[in-house]
């Protein structure tokens, strides 16, 4: 929520008037009350500058989060839908479903051991399928050879 200066100023004035009423009832000198008021107002202004900045920054971050794509592909179909490069898309269409599942799980951060358990393969088979996929995709990413 944005910082509302008018609302905060009203709250400060109500608090300050109540405090000054108590000070006057206890016989505090008007010069001292005025000095306290000036110091409290300076403190309020300092806080206002801080909260306006943090409020704007928070709204900026929320806006940036809304602009970012948050959806991570959860299925192989989602993964294929996310691909914008036509050559890569065509290459992945020729790959079997186990290899696509391995790729998806690898992108999601699963270890090779976990992927093997999910895909129903051995760890060695997972490594081999990833190696074959790299060889298949190498001409797409390095069309003129290694860098």
Overall structural class, as computed from helix and strand content, comes to: mainly alpha
Q: What is the β-strand count?
A: 0
Name the quaternary structure.
Answer: single chain
The helix content, as a percent range, equals over 70%
3D shape: rod-shaped
- CATH class call of the largest domain: Mainly Alpha
| Strand percentage | under 5%
The separation of the N and C termini measures: 50 Å
Number of helices: 7
Number of domains: 2
Unreliable stretches: none
**N-to-C order of helices and strands:** HHHHHHH
Taking Cα atoms only, what radius of gyration do you get, to the nearest Å? 31 Å
Kindly report the average pLDDT value.
Answer: 84
Second-tier CATH architecture of the largest domain? Orthogonal Bundle
CATH fold assignment of the largest domain: Arc Repressor Mutant, subunit A
The description of the largest β-sheet is: none
Domain RNA polymerase sigma factor 70 region 4 type: 88-137
Protein name: Sigma-70 family RNA polymerase sigma factor
Pfam families: Sigma70_r4_2
GO molecular function: DNA binding; sigma factor activity
